[in-house]
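> example.struct
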C-alpha cells in the first residue's frame, strides 16, 4: 500500500483486495444524493489517480477473494483517466460524484457499471467491454462519446439524463456496436443523440424516453442504423425500467410516452423485426422531419399521436407489414412517401377506404401515380378488387386536375358515363339504355333491303342490338340500307357500343383473373 494514501483511500485499497464494497454514504438521502448541492468533504473524497492504480495495476487479492472496485457514495477528484489501458477487475461506481471528466478511450474492460452517478463528461471512443456497460440514472452534464465503441453484451442507459457538449451532442454513438440489447428507457437527452452506422445485436429500446433538440435539426440522428430485432419508441412503466425493461406496462401502471421534440433520422437503416411507434409523441417544428428514407423492416407500427408540424418522410422505404391507424398520420403537406413499398396493410382501428385515399392524397401535394398504384396492388393482392378499382378511379380523377381544359372536359365525360372503365356495371347500364333508345328510334323507320327479296324480316330492336354489340352478328346488320340521319344514328350506336362493350369486357376480365 502506498504511504501517501488518505484514510478514505486506504479503506478503498483494502476493500479492493477483499473484493468487497466500499461505502462512504451517510444514510441521509439528501446528503448522499450525488446530484444534489450538499458539499462532500475530504472524508468522502479519493483521488482519481489512486482509483486508476487499482484499475490498471492493483495489488493481488487476498486468499480466497476476487479483487474488485465497488465504490458507493465517493467523490472522485481530478480526471479518471485509463485511456488505452486494460482493466481486468470488475468495476462498479454507485451514487458517486466525479469532479472532472472520465477518460476511457481505447481502453478494455470486462464489465463496467456507473449507477446513479454525477459525471461531467464521459469520453469512451473505441472502448471495448467483454460484458455490460451500465449507466442507469446517471446525469452527464457535457455529453457521452461512444464513437466506434464495442460493447460485448448489453448497454444500459435507462433513466439517464444527458446534456449536450460544445457541439450540442448528448450521446455520440457513431459506429457503436452493441452485442445484445441497448436499453435507453426513460432517458432525457437535451441535444443531438447520434448513432450513425451503429449496430445493435438484439433490440434498441427508447421506451418512455424524452429527446429534446428543438433548435437543431435532429433529436435522434441515426442513419444506417442496424437493429437485429426491434426498435421501440413506445410507453414505459415509470416504476423502474431497470427491472421492467422490454415488458409491456401492466394495466393501471403509470406510464410515460416516448416523446421527441425535434427531428428523427433513420435513413438507410435496417430493423429486422419491427419499428414500433405505439402512442409515440412527435412534437416537431416546421423544419423538422421524421425521416425513414429507404428504411427496411418487416413491420412498421405507425400508431403514435398525429404530428401537427414537421414532415413524416417514407420515400423509398420497404416494409412487409404496415400496421397503422388513420388518426396517426399527418395531414396534407406533412407526409411524403414517394417510392414507399409495403406488402400488407394491417389497420388496428377503423380505416375506411375514403380515409386511406385521403392518406395517399396527403402524401402527394402534386399528382403522382405511384402511391395510388401501390395501394391498388396491395388491395388487389388481398382480394379486395372493388376497392382496388376505387383507388385507380381516384387516381384518374386526381390526374384529371393536371390536364388542360379539353382534357378535363373529356375526363369528366368519361367519369360520368363509365367511371373511366372502373365501374363496368355502369357501362352495362348505359348499353341497355342505348339499346332501348336505339330500338325505339329505329321502330319509326323501315329501311330498304340491300338486295330485294333477300335477308331476314326487319326487327328494329334486334337491329339496334346488332349495331351496339361488336363482333357478334344477330342477323340484322348488313342487310338494310340506311340513309341520311339514320345512317349517322347507326354509326353513333356502333361507336358507342364498341366503347361500352370494351369497358364491360375489361371489368369481366378482372373478375375472371381474380377468380
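> example.seq
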Amino acid at each position: 500500500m502506498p504511504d501517501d494514501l488518505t484514510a478514505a483511500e486506504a479503506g478503498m485499497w483494502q476493500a479492493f483486495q477483499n473484493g468487497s464494497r466500499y461505502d462512504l454514504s451517510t444514510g441521509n438521502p439528501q446528503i448522499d444524493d450525488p446530484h444534489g448541492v450538499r458539499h462532500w468533504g475530504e472524508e468522502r473524497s479519493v483521488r482519481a489517480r489512486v482509483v486508476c492504480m487499482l484499475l490498471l495495476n492493483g495489488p493481488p487479492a487476498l486468499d480466497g477473494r476476487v479483487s474488485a472496485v465497488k465504490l458507493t457514495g465517493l467523490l472522485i477528484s481530478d480526471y479518471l483517466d485509463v485511456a488505452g489501458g486494460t482493466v481486468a477487475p470488475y468495476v462498479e461506481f454507485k451514487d458517486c460524484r466525479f469532479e472532472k471528466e472520465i477518460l476511457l478511450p481505447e481502453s478494455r474492460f470486462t464489465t463496467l457499471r456507473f449507477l446513479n452517478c454525477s459525471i461531467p463528461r464521459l469520453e469512451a471512443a473505441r472502448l471495448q467491454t467483454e460484458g455490460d456497460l451500465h449507466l442507469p440514472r446517471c446525469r452527464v452534464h457535457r455529453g457521452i462519446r461512444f464513437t466506434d465503441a464495442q460493447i460485448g453484451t448489453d448497454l444500459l442507459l435507462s433513466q439517464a439524463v444527458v446534456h449536450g457538449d460544445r457541439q450540442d451532442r448528448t450521446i455520440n454513438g457513431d459506429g457503436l456496436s452493441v452485442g445484445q440489447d441497448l436499453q435507453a428507457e426513460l432517458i432525457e437527452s437535451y441535444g443531438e443523440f447520434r448513432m450513425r452506422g451503429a449496430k445493435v445485436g438484439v433490440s434498441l429500446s427508447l421506451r418512455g424516453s424524452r429527446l429534446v433538440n428543438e433548435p437543431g435539426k435532429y433529436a435522434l440522428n441515426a442513419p444506417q442504423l442496424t437493429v437485429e430485432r426491434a426498435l421501440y419508441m413506445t410507453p414505459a412503466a415509470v416504476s423502474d425500467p431497470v427491472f421492467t425493461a422490454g415488458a409491456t406496462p401492466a394495466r393501471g401502471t403509470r406510464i410515460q410516452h416516448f416523446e421527441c421534440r425535434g427531428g428523427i433520422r433513420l435513413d438507410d437503416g435496417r430493423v429486422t423485426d419491427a419499428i414500433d411507434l405505439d402512442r409515440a409523441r412527435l412534437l416537431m417544428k416546421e423544419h423538422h422531419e421524421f425521416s425513414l428514407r429507404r428504411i427496411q423492416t418487416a413491420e412498421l407500427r405507425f400508431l403514435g399521436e398525429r404530428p401537427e408540424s414537421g414532415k413524416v418522410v417514407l420515400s423509398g422505404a420497404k416494409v412487409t407489414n404496415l400496421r397503422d391507424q388513420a388518426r396517426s398520420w399527418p395531414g396534407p403537406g406533412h407526409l411524403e412517401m414517394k417510392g414507399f413499398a409495403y406488402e400488407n396493410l394491417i389497420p388496428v382501428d377503423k380505416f375506411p377506404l375514403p380515409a386511406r385515399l385521403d392518406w395517399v392524397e396527403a402524401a402527394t401535394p402534386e399528382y403522382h401515380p405511384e402511391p395510388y398504384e401501390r395501394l391498388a396492388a396491395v388491395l388487389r393482392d388481398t382480394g379486395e378488387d372493388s376497392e382496388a378499382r376505387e383507388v385507380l378511379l381516384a387516381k384518374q380523377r386526381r390526374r384529371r386536375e393536371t390536364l388542360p381544359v379539353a382534357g378535363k372536359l373529356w375526363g369528366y365525360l368519361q367519369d360520368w358515363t363509365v367511371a373511366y372503365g372502373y365501374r363496368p356495371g355502369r357501362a352495362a347500364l348505359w348499353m341497355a339504355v342505348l339499346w332501348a333508345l336505339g330500338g325505339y328510334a329505329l321502330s319509326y323507320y323501315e329501311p330498304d333491303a340491300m338486295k330485294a327479296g333477300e335477308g331476314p324480316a326487319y326487327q328494329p330492336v334486334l337491329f339496334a342490338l346488332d349495331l351496339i354489340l361488336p363482333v357478334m352478328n344477330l342477323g340484322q346488320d348488313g342487310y338494310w340500307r340506311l340513309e341520311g340521319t339514320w345512317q349517322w344514328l347507326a354509326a353513333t350506336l356502333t361507336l358507342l357500343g364498341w366503347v361500352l362493350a370494351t369497358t364491360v369486357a375489361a371489368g369481366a376480365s378482372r373478375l375472371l383473373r381474380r377468380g
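> remarks
The mean pLDDT is 88.
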